[in-house]
Amino acid sequence: MGNAKSGALSKEILEELKTSTRYSEEELCRWYESFQRQCPDGRISRAEFEKIYGTFFPNSDPKGYARHVFRSFDTNDDGTLDFREYIIALHLTSSGKTHLKLEWAFSLFDVDRNGEVSKNEVLEIISAIFKMIPPEEQKLLPEDENSPQKRADKLWAYFNKGEN
Question: Could you list the residue ranges that cross the membrane (predicted)?
Answer without folding.
Answer: none
